[in-house]
Amino acid sequence: MSTLFRAEWQKITGHRLVATLLVWIYPVGAALMMFMVLTGVLLSDTLRNGVQQSPPVWTQQSMILWELVNSEIGRFLLVTFAAFVFAGEYQWGTWKNLIPRSARVPLILTKYAAFAVLITAAVLLAVLIVIGGTWLIGAVVGVSPSPALSDGAAMADAAGDFVQRGLITLTSAIIAASYAAIGGMLTRSIIGGVIVGFLLQFAEQGTALVTILIGQVVPALRGLFALYLYTPAYNLGNIGSIARYDMPFFPFANMAGLFGPHTLEASLLIVLAWVVGLIALVTWLFRRQDILG
Amino acid sequence: MAVTSVIQLDGVSKTFGRGKRRVEALKSVNLEIAPGQVYGFLGPNGAGKTTTIRILLNLVRATAGGIRVMGADPSRDPSVLRKVGAQVESPSFYGYLSGRANLQVLARTSGLNDKARIDQLLEQVGLAARAEQRVSGYSLGMRQRLGLAAALLTNPQLLIFDEPTNGLDPAGIQEMRVFIRNLVDTEGKTVFLSSHLLNEVEQLCDRVAIIHRGALIREGPVTELLGEQSRVRIEAEPVEAAQAALSERWLVTVEEGALWVQAQRDSIPEVVRCLTAGSIQVYHVGEEHLTLEDYFLSVTQGETVE
Description:
The complex is a heterodimer of chains A (293) and B (306).
Chain A: H1 2-14, H2 16-23, H3 25-43, H4 45-53, H5 58-69, H6 72-92, H7 95-98, H8 104-141, H9 152-187, H10 190-217, H11 232-245, H12 264-288
Helix pairs in contact in A: 1-8, 2-3, 2-6, 3-4, 3-8, 5-8, 5-9, 6-9, 6-10, 8-9, 8-12, 9-10, 9-11, 9-12, 11-12
Chain B: E1 7-16, E2 23-33, E3 38-42, H1 49-56, E4 64-69, E5 84-87, H2 99-109, H3 115-124, H4 140-152, E6 158-162, H5 170-185, E7 190-194, H6 198-204, E8 207-212, E9 215-221, H7 222-228, E10 231-237, H8 239-247, E11 251-255, E12 258-262, H9 268-277, E13 281-288, H10 292-299
Parallel strand pairs in B: 3-7, 3-8, 5-6, 6-7
Antiparallel strand pairs in B: 1-2, 1-4, 8-9, 10-12, 10-13, 11-12
Helix pairs in contact in B: 2-3, 3-4
């Protein structure tokens, strides 16, 4: 299994353009951002004074990276990257070289593993750059970023928050990757994987809007809104909201009489079912698929 | 227990699509290949050669029938395919990686991490000097060589090649022929190959099978198939009447004014009697042994080969 993972890693990172634009963009972007801020601090008194008056909170800045990965642009990069990972073999006709060398299930699961590890590695690298950059800027300006490394309670809080946001983002990424994988398998092309991956994501996110509209036109069908409460998008949002603010996520006041937010346990269960279900579906499709190209 | 056949197909069928788009690619194909030989697999375009190879390699699922490769069913026990090296249709690689990196990826996928083996194979197929170059810059011939190296990575006992000489120049084809023959004669491997170069197949293969419209129509040692199927060339007048008289019993074609009759030597007296009984003037009768190409065209009714 480890050699299979190394093979997958070599394939992905060997494509320098894809790896740089879709994966290493986070550490590269973080380095560029830190460089710009540092240059600004060195050149501008106003900026330097601003940093002195309001010292950077490095824990908050490092959290932003997970949010960035989970943003609209971040999701676009994720789906494109996943389409490259999962559909590339169809496009290049290379499955026929790989399948006789390994069972299909490990081949596809290794793609998930390489995808998740690369995204995590890119974000962790970016976080290290942001933390290092923040402390460097602090040193240049003459202030200590907060919280101090010696503040055990703050460090534990930050670590917990970081892991929790990371898990939510990675779960979201795996779901997006599964959509792209399904698209790539059905269309046998990278661009097909990107398009279908986006359409499925859009369909998932758009469920709320569509079901609310249907409910307004045909009141008897207001119950359809319940579908949205079973999507990964809602439940990941709900988990994040409960974990961060101790408040469930339910910005649908007009539905309050009909539906309520899920509990943390229910949302966790629903997300788990989606992740397991999608990975199982991708694996099942791949196991049954005739490789003709 | 020793494996008596390296490939065994029992009534293998494959259907693609449904309803009006249903295509029966293979129709109950039976095939048994003993180890230690070069086995040629021939057929016209769309006959089912590549589908058969893909089924053997677990790339395509058979609709019906039993498949055994090196004694195991590859769809149930894919690990058996580690004893098999293959190159299916045109060689496909990661164009953005070098030749060496492509071999590393394939070796790792096979669970290997043997740098020395990769170096040795690159040397063996004549790509050592270009090993660090991206495959996107390789010619088709170089890709074929890389495909050969990839197939040999795990030092397999059975090699399956689909058109291994595509893209090679005449010298490369001859080199490939010697290379494949050596694999069998000196290393004791078995090679199963499809090729459109019938002359090459005739020189290289010990046995051949001919597949036509999804069904296996002939199988046997090359010498036996060609030996039993000599043709008789007849010059007779009128040609149309002669063809009509013989067509009831033999397969007859007319080429450049002469009749070609698919018949063995001991049938010649009967052929002549048949002609003279119809008052046809016979000027010349001669026996000619078939080449594999002649034989192939005669059994597939002249359809082109892939």
